[in-house]
Design goal:
The chain contains nine helices and no strands. By secondary structure, the protein is mostly helical. The chain is elongated, with a radius of gyration of 20 Å. The protein starts with 8 loop residues before the first helix and ends in a 7-residue tail after the last helix.
């Protein structure tokens, strides 16, 4: 069995996070425990608690890594195109991310802290950064809206995108049409923007 001084603290945290990701992918959130994570990297559960105050903290760290990857992929999906096309690209990116990284993506919504409801400041900032990506094209499409209205619209629209994605991931769309998920995402966005842009005929 490895000893704690075989790795730096940073190395050990990375080992633990990688092991936790593997456990979540294999067994889901219910299969995640300090004992299992520690055993998989050859350390004791006590050693793990020298790195993370609780399983909640470990999950927050996992979710932070997931959000970082998701944001990077959203940024990479940006194209020199019309705002509506960019929103379609973001939606497709989000859907494909959920399909490719289902366990990590699911943990974002399944994990609830056992001690408090408030998100860590780092996670809150990452979520705000993600929504800022959605707010920019919405603001471009209707410059008469206030920042609060744009923020509300971004969350409203993305709630719909998330709903379609969730149903698709869980195979609950009950549609046999190839590419139905993408068609639904495009339909949602175009319908939403029809109302969003109604004050601007040029849209």
């Amino acid at each position: 069995m490895a000893r704690r001084n075989d790795h730096t603290k940073e190395e050990l945290r990375e080992l633990a996070l990688n092991a936790a990701e593997a456990l979540v992918a294999k067994e889901g959130l219910s299969g995640l425990s300090a004992r299992k994570v520690a055993a998989s990297i050859g350390y004791s559960a006590g050693s793990l608690y020298q790195l993370f105050a609780s399983i909640d903290e470990l999950c927050w760290e996992l979710n932070s890594r997931t959000l970082s990857v998701l944001l990077q992929q959203l940024v990479e999906s940006e194209q020199p195109c019309a705002a509506q096309e960019q929103l379609n690209a973001y939606a497709l990116c989000y859907y494909e991310f959920a399909i490719r990284h289902t366990s990590s993506w699911s943990l974002l919504f399944e994990h609830k802290s056992s001690t408090c409801d408030a998100l860590p400041v780092k996670l809150t900032a990452q979520i705000e950064d993600l929504f800022a990506q959605i707010e920019r094209p919405l603001m471009h499409l209707n410059k008469s809206k206030t920042p609060k209205e744009v923020a509300l619209a971004a969350k409203t629209l993305w709630s719909g995108v998330h709903g379609i994605t969730t149903l698709a991931v869980n195979r609950k769309l009950f549609l046999s049409i190839d590419g139905a998920e993408i068609a639904m995402l495009d339909c949602l966005i175009s319908s939403f923007l029809e109302g969003w842009c109604k004050e601007k005929p040029a849209c």
